[in-house]
Amino acid sequence: MFSRPLHPILVLVVAILLPGMGQVLNGMLVRAWIMIFFTLSLGVVTYHLTTPAHSFIGRHAGGFFIYAIMVMDAYLWARYRYARWLQA
Question: What is the pLDDT of residue 2?
């Protein structure tokens, strides 16, 4: 009925290493582009709102926040798809 989806742990590892690829592996290409756009946009916004005294992470906090959401989103969708496949 359904083709076997990738294991959620594999999607999680790929999502951590390559931003946006977790969504691509889940078959959500448009979602990946949208999240990459917001990661870069918020990274630039927070960079311009902070001072040079802040750390690299602090200066790009908006981008790192969306990156963390991307990783969780990819993993949760992969878990959902895998559980759905196991039930079928």
Answer: 62
Positive or negative: CA dihedral 43, 68, 70, 21: positive
The structure tokens 């592996």 sit at: 25
The pTM assigned to this predicted structure is 0.89
pLDDT above 70 for 27: yes
Are the CB atoms for 31 and 23 separated by under 8 Å?
yes
In terms of C-beta distances under 8 Å and separation of at least 24 residues, what long-range contacts does 38-41 make, across chains too?
Answer: 38/66, 39/63, 39/66, 39/67, 39/70
Instruction: Give the span between the Cα atoms of 44 and 52, in whole angstroms.
Output: 14
Residue entry with tokens 């959620």: 8
Name the region of 2 (left: φ>0; alpha: ψ -120 to 50; beta: rest): beta
What does the chain come to in residues?
Answer: 88
The average pLDDT across 26-43 equals: 96
